[in-house]
Design goal:
Blueprint (H helix, E strand, L loop, with lengths): L11 H9 L11 E2 L11 H9 L14 H14 L13 E4 L2 H12 L7 E6 L3 H9 L3 E6 L15 H4 L2 E7 L11 H14 L2 E5 L16 H7 L8 E6 H4 L8 E5 L1 H14 L5 H11 L3 H21 L13 E2 L8 H12 L1 E2 L1 E2 L21 E4 L4 H17 L2
Parallel strand pairs: 1-10, 3-4, 3-5, 5-6, 6-7
Antiparallel strand pairs: 2-8, 7-8, 9-12, 11-12
Helix pairs in contact: 2-11, 3-11, 4-5, 4-10, 7-8, 12-14
């Protein structure tokens, strides 16, 4: 077996299961999970109807490149969303449908890293663990860039020494951030593009939460938009990942896309031809419907805003957390500072499950002392329906106040 498998760390939810293994939650309380970022809002009816209408397509093989109509729908959506130059995002050369961002991110790292030379992959810390796992299995070395409250929960790219950038082949951006909800600014994207040109690395921007933002007048910028602002309409060195899972409440559809530099898309498509991961045709038809409709997306944002407002009113008096710009997460500091103990005891007393922040981070030594930027915080995924989410917030507050 691949010896790099032994380098993989336990997934956060494996650790959470072990943490709760010997705990008996109150049987008279309905369990509420705020730990997993799985949207629970209703999927768009038109998308489900398209699935049913094309169910007979299971009798046909799909192609790796996907239907031209799907690639066109994606290119048109991205061009509208990020005000790209007309026709600059060519559906034939710059867009590739994928089975969700998780699968595509993992596959892209395998295809992108050059194993004949040092292969460091920079990623935010805390982070989505697929970045790390994909890097390790591709024979690369993770480079963790701490995201602390002092840095606005975004990496400080200017603080990375030139000798470190020398061995970096790929940089992951996650914006809006998981778990912090922080948004990468256009200025930071531009800075990263300049560093990529100087040090010869690729930029992969995971933007799967891009459509869940709290201020309707301020949608988060994206990497392709930053390219456009620099007149970089070939999107050189840049690739983005998008998904319908969060935007359209379709996590089980496993539908997304990658887009960007044609010089990256072409070899990645060749890799995927051998990988055997073409999107089923009925999924493609349903995805076309989803990418062409914004009404359900705006309704989705409204529902999350309502939950954020209600939960903030309940928890702000007893917990300290940054006001997220986007995503569906809260990232509060826990009283006492022990995120594992907080998560375990909260489950034991209130039957609410949250994810310890230290499970999403790795230790670093910024000043010679060991530091975990996720320690002392928990991730709350506000994905359940409003009543359940508000009840969970009330239980968390009661838990904190009972303990003084």
């Amino acid at each position: 077996m691949n010896p790099n498998l032994d380098a993989l760390k336990p997934y956060p939810f494996e650790r959470l299961t072990r943490l709760k293994a010997d705990v008996v939650a109150p049987a008279d309380m309905t369990p509420i999970a705020l730990s997993i970022g799985e949207p629970r809002h209703a999927p768009p009816p038109a998308v489900l109807e398209a699935l049913r209408r094309h169910e007979g397509d299971v009798a046909r093989y799909p192609t790796t490149t996907g239907l031209p109509e799907l690639r066109t729908a994606i290119a048109e959506w991205a061009t509208r969303r990020y005000t790209l130059a007309a026709t600059s995002l060519d559906p034939e050369r710059h867009v590739l449908p994928v089975n969700g961002t998780r699968e595509a991110i993992f596959a892209f790292v395998q295809a992108a890293l050059d194993r004949s030379r040092p292969a460091r992959v920079a990623m935010p810390n805390p982070f989505y663990q697929i970045y790390e796992g994909a890097t390790l299995l591709a024979g690369g070395e993770p480079l963790y860039l701490d995201c602390s409250a002092e840095s606005g929960f975004c990496p400080d790219y200017a603080a990375v020494p030139a000798e470190v950038w020398r061995d970096v082949q790929l940089v992951f951006v996650c914006s809006p951030g998981n778990p912090t909800g922080a948004v990468t600014s256009l200025a930071d994207y531009r800075q990263l593009i300049e560093l990529a040109d100087e040090h010869d690395f690729l930029i992969a921007s995971d933007e799967c939460y891009s459509e869940l933002y709290l201020d309707e007048a301020a949608p988060p910028p994206g990497l392709l938009e930053a390219c456009r602002s620099l007149g970089r309409d070939d999107y050189r060195r840049c690739i983005v990942f998008h998904s319908l899972s969060k935007r359209s409440n379709l996590p089980g559809l496993r539908s997304g896309f990658v887009a960007g530099d044609a010089a990256l898309i072409a070899p990645f498509k060749r890799y995927r031809t051998y990988h055997g991961c073409a999107m089923p045709l009925q999924t493609q038809h349903a995805s076309i419907v989803a990418w062409q409709d914004e009404h359900h997306v705006r309704a989705n944002r409204d529902a999350y805003r309502e939950k954020f407002a209600a939960v903030t009113d309940i928890l702000a008096p007893v917990m300290d957390f940054p006001a997220p710009q986007a995503s569906f997460y809260l990232w509060p500091a826990v009283p006492g500072g022990d995120d594992e103990a907080f998560a375990r005891d909260l489950f034991a007393e209130q039957h609410v499950t949250v994810l310890p922040g230290s499970y999403m981070s790795r230790d670093s030594m910024p000043s010679g002392t060991t530091y975990n930027p996720g320690a002392g915080r928990v991730r709350l995924a506000l994905v359940a329906e409003r009543d359940a989410t508000v009840e969970a917030a009330r239980r968390i507050r009661r838990f904190i106040e009972t303990r003084g």
